[in-house]
Amino acid sequence: MSSTTARSQSQNPAFNLADSLTSYLKRLPPAARVSLSTRSLVDATLSFAYRADVRVPSASVIKLPIMLELMERVKAGMFNLDAMHTLTEAEKVGGDGVLQTYADQSRVSYRELLRLMLIKSDNTATNIIIHLLGRDAINQRLRKSGLERSQLNRVMMDTLAAKQGRENYVTAQEMNALLEKVYRHQVATPEGCEAMLTILKQNEDVLTIPRLLPKSVVIAHKTGTLAYVRGDAGIVYAEKPFLLAVFVEGVPTPEAERIIGEVVLICYTYFN
Which of 37, 78, 108, 161 has its CA 20 to 30 A from that of 256? Predict the structure, then answer.
């Protein structure tokens, strides 16, 4: 869908977000399984959900709950982000990230580990933080936050666990709920929430939510990629800011990215 087409729809009195998204989703190939949730941060009645409560493999979007637990520890005075971690060769894993290129015994602050986990989706940084916090604590934080279906079941790049069916899961609806709590300063501290948003706004992956939007649009988001799922969950600071989480399964990654971008453009045109 071109930006001109989307704009003309928004100028049509008959234009409706639900109708437009439903029509778009019906045109997708049967193999494409989309899970979608979007809602205005100005008017909660303006929303759309499609398979929003279906558990999907999270890929790196699971790093949002990990971020939340870490910042709650900071709030409780149990942890200092400026504490230093000594990186070892044994901690390094492949996939996304830059820490795997650092020298053995490099000293890195936990603030930097958090930043790398979210901006570069660094898997080594993520695993260090998971081991620090504990899987059970991260999952308990999800439950305390009212997020019942999302679950961290393994560390990053654990291919054996994945083959055994131990996958990490989220839902589009719950990732929106988590991001809204951060946006409204309902978790951690107000300063902590603003710090999280600042980092999420620096996400370097531009192939999904930012794909078709003007470069001037600010987006706080976290993406995820596996061979079998492409996802993104974030806050789009349109004229009327809105939440959006989209996961696409069943099609090659470039096709999934195109679908996410087109879904986002429909939403952005409506909310802007």
Answer: 161
